[in-house]
Amino acid sequence: MIMMKMKIIIKKSYAFIVERWAIFVVAFFLFGGGYLLFQVLATPPQFSNLASPSFPDTNGIVDVIVVSPDNSMVYVGGNFTEVGGVARNNIARITSDGTVDPSFNPNASSEVDSFALNSDGSILYVGGFFGSIGGASRSGVAALNTSDGTATSFDPNVTGGVWSLALSSNDSILYIGAHFTTTIGGQTRRSVGSVNTSDGSVTSFNPNATFTFPVASMGIIFSLDLSADNSTLYVGGSFTRIANTARNFVAALHTSDGTLTSWNPNGSGGVGYVQTMLLNSNESILYVGGNFTSMGGASRSHLAALNTSGATATSFDPSPDSDPKTFALSSDNSVLYVGGIFTTIGGQSRAGLASIATSDGTVSAWNPAQGASITALASASDDSAVYVGTSGGTFAT
After folding, report:
1. Considering just the CA atoms, what is the radius of gyration of the chain in Å?
2. What strand order describes the sheet that includes 221-226?
3. Is the CB of residue 144 less than 8 Å from the CB of residue 150?
4. Residues 167/174, Cβ–Cβ less than 8 Å
5. 274 near 236, Cβ under 8 Å?
6. How far is Cα 133 from Cα 126, in angstroms, rounded to an integer?
7. Pairing relation of β-strands 91-95 and 73-79?
8. How confident is the model at residue 205 (pLDDT cuts 50, 70, 90)?
9. Is 247 exposed, middle or buried (0-12, 13-18, 19+ CB in 10 A)?
10. Dihedral sign from CA coordinates of 163, 169, 174, 176
């Protein structure tokens, strides 16, 4: 089932603490539920389940979280009006001690769905469905000074809303994943394009994604990931053609000209899509999650690990019973954290959140979520803590 944007306001959120690994998770109920933000820390192999008075509640949906390069700040985006009782419209920054930062209040006019921080943490690129942010008129995407939350002069003017962002390692190009037919700077780009960060001008990069089901107008580029040398952009979504060539749900594009590489995992299965992707740190494996039954030449249910050298699936096969929505990796690539709407994974009962050994796909005893639906993860670069936010249920020790 394709994820639909829903405006569901919750009345109360709760915070929980455990120790080690830092992952922020945002979760949603697809129909009739709510979104909550949690902080969870875990100490393997024992687990805590303690309320954290220091971590602020939100009063609405949280769609995206990112941690600053020095792990001192956490940026939160979504559809809310308060964080920890402090007025914040759809975007906020939380300090390491759980304080809502009074110096950062961009006041987005509508939903925020994606973030990309530049390499030194001085600029936060924001994507979503807003028309103003940072004290300026900005449609769909903006660049904010992290010093004070004000918008820079960067103004690509994206119509149709932005779902995903990827920033080149030299901070010069911003790739934009969007909804069906989008205009960027007045130029048509079918769901994916790129702009120069220096002035917001549109590049010639134009892969032209095509969507055929369930209907073309629901076509979305959900996820982007970029190689460290900036030469290859991995694209995940509900497309069946891109760059005028058949590709199902996931593709690799030359950033130089928007043409396809030969890499083709060729996903299949029903109303298929890739919702989330993540390259490991040496870029040998791309993890993909979504709605599919085969990927990389093998039977794979909802989750696969793909060799970037040949597009074949590895033996990693946890087979969750429903969609993963988000991933995070430990710094040594040995553990994949998976969040989503599944209830079983790797033959184990897990309510939307699991920790999996990348070597063999076994699920660890780590099991903090009960009845949760997880949609976003963001990990601290030093593996010092794990932050988890979920849309309901209780946490078990």
Report:
1. 19
2. 221-226, 232-237, 250-254
3. yes
4. yes
5. yes
6. 9
7. antiparallel
8. very high
9. buried
10. negative
Question: Which pair of structure tokens corresponds to residue 34?
Answer: 């709510």
- Within a 10 A sphere around the Cβ of 208, how many other Cβ atoms? 16
How does 35-63 read in b/e, with b if 16+ C-beta sit within 10 Å? bbbbbbbbeeeebeeeebeebbbbbbbbb
Q: Which amino acid is at 301?
A: S
225 exposure class (CB count in 10 Å sphere: 0-12, 13-18, 19+): buried
Q: Is the peptide bond before 102 cis (omega within 30 degrees of 0)?
A: no
* Alpha-carbon distances, residue 214 vs 90, 182, 195, 217, 364 (angstroms): 30, 19, 29, 9, 36
Q: Which pTM does this prediction carry? A: 0.86
242 within 8 A of 220, measured Cβ to Cβ: no
Phi, psi of 81 (to 5 degrees): -125, -10
Contact in structure between 397 and 18 (CB atoms under 8 Å): no
> 28 near 375, Cβ under 8 Å?
yes
- pLDDT for 391 equals 53
CB contact set of 375 (below 8 Å; sequence gap of 6+) = 25, 26, 27, 28, 63, 325, 326, 339, 340
pLDDT at 134: 98
